[in-house]
Amino acid sequence: MENKSSLFLIGFSGSGKSSVGKKLAKVLNYTFIDTDRIIEKKTGKSIDEIITQNGEIEFRKIESNVLSEIDFSKKNIVATGGGLPTIDENLKIMKKEGSIIWLEASVDSIFERLFSSNEIRPLLGSNIKKDKIIKLFNIRLSVYNIAETKIDTNKKELNQIVKEITKIYGQ
Ligand code: S3P
């Protein structure tokens, strides 16, 4: 497989992009970037505050800016927000600068993880319901399917997922 500079982790909220990304960056000695955390640092607001106060469209603009400002002369592992690949411009950048990996998780495991998470996902609401996840999940599926690699994360330990990715992309 061609070894492009950066690896982009995409997938629904709760699919493990941040935890897999952090570990993967350590193992591969890449720079770890979490777009949501950069947005929060840049704006001084939580993702929830940005979306509820300024709306999703404004959030997507900030998100696209953050993606475009990444230093792609470095090898990065980029944990993206769940909706980042829904914007064409973002997809173009990711395809140009690296490889896209979809961390695939079932609605059941997403529900389990989000239910026990402290982070508010404003598009899903503070009271996480399975039917809301299913609705957004189905809309997002065709976008996530553009990934060059799909990793099934269901019932797998973090180390196993990282191992599978390094097997494909590690030198
Ligand atoms: C979003 C997912 C969130 C965050 C924002 C919007 C989405 O990131 O970017 O709440 O549109 O699915 P995670 O995928 O890390 O939860």
List keywords for this structure.
171 residues; Rossmann fold; 8 helices; binds shikimate-3-phosphate
Structure description:
51% of the residues lie in helices and 14% in strands. With 171 residues, it is α/β, with parallel strands linked by helices. It has one domain: P-loop containing nucleotide triphosphate hydrolases (Rossmann fold). The chain has a 5-stranded parallel β-sheet. Shikimate-3-phosphate (S3P) binds next to loops.
Would you summarize the structure shown here?
Helix content is 51%, strand content 14%. With 171 residues, the chain is an alpha/beta fold.
What's the gyration radius in Å?
A: 15 Å
| Low-confidence runs | none
- Look at the structure and name the CATH superfamily: P-loop containing nucleotide triphosphate hydrolases
Please give the number of β-strands.
5
Which class do the helix and strand fractions yield? alpha/beta
Number of helices: 8
